[in-house]
Write a structure and sequence with these properties.
Layout (H helix, E strand, L loop, with lengths): L9 E4 L4 H11 L3 E3 L1 E4 L5 E4 L6 E5 L5 H17 L4 E5 L19 H10 L4 E5 L18 E4 L2 H10 L7 E4 L5 H11 L2 E4 L1 E6 L2 E5 L10 E9 L3 H12 L4 E9 L3 H9 L6 E3 L7 E3 L2 H11 L3
Parallel strand pairs: 1-2, 1-5, 5-6, 6-7, 7-8, 9-10, 9-13, 13-14, 14-15, 15-16
Antiparallel strand pairs: 3-4, 11-12
Helix pairs in contact: 1-8, 4-5
Amino acid sequence: MARNTGNYTAVYGFPESADAARRLAQALEIPCHIAELHRFPDGESLVRLPEPVERAIVYRSLDRPNDKLVELTLAASVLRRQGAADLCLVAPYMAYMRQDAVFRPGEPVSQTVVGDWLGRCFDRFVCVEPHLHRTHTLDEVFVGRPSAALSGAAPIAGHLRGNGVAAGTVIVGPDEESAPLVEAVAGPLGLTGIVGRKERRGDRDVTVVLPPDAPIHGRPVVIVDDVISSGETIFSCARAARMLGASRVQVYGVHALFSDIVAERFVAEGLGSPLSCDGVPHPSNALSLSDLLADAIRSFANN
């Protein structure tokens, strides 16, 4: 007997994340179709979707989001025209969430704009660590649309457990925003969790300060964060942990957005290669989100 899929009958993916879309479809035991994309010389996109279905899951992470947002809108229009009555967007990385208020005159509230835009195209949403700050839930972003904001903690904890994490390991987050992730990783493993304080003066000018009495001396440290992009936050956090006597430092990120140059710097800093979840395709991907996403999709059938 097929497993409960929330009554969805197919997953639609895009070329850059086709493998992850197929893994999700496999977890749900339903077919997967990959969109065809064509880019015209003037930069416009053309989207072709095969095999119309009544209830579809559209899978795409919104890193480097601008072209992807337009293409998702076009894809949703095709599926609606072909008769889809329910569209679920699975966007492990959701863009434009950080600008949730007007910080300086003349700025948009990008979170509201993108939430309204996508809310007109899709009926349900599943995201992972959507980088919410003053907004407490995804329901406030996609008003009137059922949504699930998932934690990346379970895949990280599972990977640590599977690799025999040492009993004295300390899980460290760089700032208070990482506290829920730290707690959700450390708790099930019976480990100590520590959260630092981040001082940001610019996109690449960051200092992380850890509590001076943190029980780190002589113990291994695992730094966890939702997003790794410039790497500056992690580098500063690792330096702070070493100043407190960490025996070694390992890094996990839910979403890897960093370049090859930053990856080389991780190695040069003695941190090795960070490990990330596969929501954003990246060479550092080592943790699958497919089971986590599939469980969230199935839960929609019970609500």
